[in-house]
Amino acid sequence: MENYYQLLGVTPFAPLEDIQKAYKKTYGELFVSDSPLANLPKLRQLKEALEILSDPVKRQEYDARLKEFLDALENRFAEAVEALASRRFSDCIAIIKECLKISPRESEFYETLGLAYQLQGTLDEALKAFQQGLQLKSRCAQFNWYIAEVYRLLRDDERNETYLLEAAEGFKEILKTDPRNVNAQEMLADTYAKMSWFDEAVEVYNKLIEMFPYKADYRRDLGSLYYEMNYLDEAEENLKEALQNNPEDSSALLFLGLIYYKKRLLAKAIESIEASLRYEPNQPEVRSLMEKIREVQKEVGRTVEELINEPNPDAMVEGTVKWYSSENGMGVLSSPEYPEVLLHFTALLPEDVDTLKKGDGVRFGVVKDVSGLIAVQVTRIAEGETGDTFPGKILRFDSARRLGMIAVPDGREVMFAFSGVHPELVEKLEVGLEVLFEVKAMHGISEEPIEQAVNVRARKKITKLPLKTTVPGPTDPG
């Protein structure tokens, strides 16, 4: 049955005024075209459509038959959509072809047909279907996006980029008249991401997150963008936020695992990737990656980054920077107890990464690893923050509260916390024990600074571990 409304380019059962306007526009375009004689059959169809739809009696009868026809066609189309969702692609294609024989001007039919061919892997047929849909809806952003995706799969980068640009312009046009159109924003963000226009994509995703702050998909996609941009901290933050709202998101877990791998946090990487595979087992490439990470972990053990990320220092000391290169982020720290301790930039505060230099005073933890001594929790000591080294004796201490007092020869009493005591000394504390320490000023509730002893150690020499300054790292699994 011929759908006169569709022929005229109006919605089914449109008002007569809209029908008359559409007739004049379409008839005029066909009549003044380069080949008006070739358009005579369609001109006759247009006249027939206007004649029937302008007659109240004829139109009432036509509309009743059309409604019955469209309802049957809609039911058949619904069967095709269900077949597509169930991945019965051949069934979907067969049904859609039936629908197109009945109504060949429905763009939705070409969209569904193209998707079925694409998911089936018949890319040439998918391309034809999407191009036919684009002919019906010229400059349609969605069809341009579909065509670009097929060209991406065909590895035709030039055509892929051309259609992506057309898609982006189309989605932007939609947003000019409907700024809060969520689908257009989602598709525009995805299009920008596929074009590697990351800054533009991030901007759109941030707008979507403002509208829907708890939608996990937007946080996940934003996190994956930041990962591509190598902004690992921002990526990690957004992916964790996504997983709070959807803990079973296998894609978010996978990207989080990749971030941990880039940060050389191998145990965390394996944990996240294993979780991704639990929720989505059919990821052979991901399984292969996980095995490679396991091999790296077996070879190197705990990385320097892992020691720094979850510090459990054997000692907290104060010393100086023996040398440090901001270019490669490596250096060596020195203290009276430990002459050489490996420094990795991830142990520094962000503001110190590029400014730390030889001779700076630092307070840091020391981890005794199989590969040597590793610095953790490194903070720069402001000039004048600590004084000279003082001798003293343990006056009293409270193991439960982990506090104590040191008597200084000049009669002062200086408080110390167990965190400021050399770990080898903590278990040997006793009243009267002779110690050496430095003093730093602590600011409490009162305006007057309070003296606190730090780097408290026994006056006798402490046995030191040898240092190996080279720590093996993971290889690139790719």
For the largest beta sheet, what order do the strands appear in spatially? 3-2-1-4-5
CATH H-level name of the domain at 212-301... which superfamily?
Answer: Tetratricopeptide repeat domain
Strand proportion, as a percent range, falls in 15-25%
What Rg do the Cα atoms give? 36 Å
Number of strands: 10
Helical content, roughly?
Answer: 40-55%
Shape: elongated
CATH topology of the domain at 212-301: Serine Threonine Protein Phosphatase 5, Tetratricopeptide repeat
Order of helices and strands: HHHHHHHHHHHHHHHHHEEEEEEEEHEE
Number of helices: 18
CATH class of the domain at 212-301: Mainly Alpha
> What value does the average pLDDT take?
86
Helix- and strand-based class? alpha+beta
Question: Largest sheet at a glance?
Answer: 5 strands, antiparallel
Model description:
The protein is of the alpha+beta class. Among the domains are: 90 residues, Tetratricopeptide repeat domain (Serine Threonine Protein Phosphatase 5, Tetratricopeptide repeat), CATH 1.25.40; 70 residues, Nucleic acid-binding proteins (OB fold (Dihydrolipoamide Acetyltransferase, E2P), Beta Barrel), CATH 2.40.50; 69 residues, Beta Barrel (OB fold (Dihydrolipoamide Acetyltransferase, E2P)), CATH 2.40.50.140. It contains 18 helices and ten strands. Strands 3-2-1-4-5 form a five-stranded antiparallel sheet. A five-stranded mixed beta barrel has the order 6-7-8-10-9. A hairpin with a 4-residue loop joins strand 1 and strand 2. Helix 10 runs antiparallel to helix 11. The protein is elongated. It starts with a helix and ends in a 20-residue tail after the last strand.
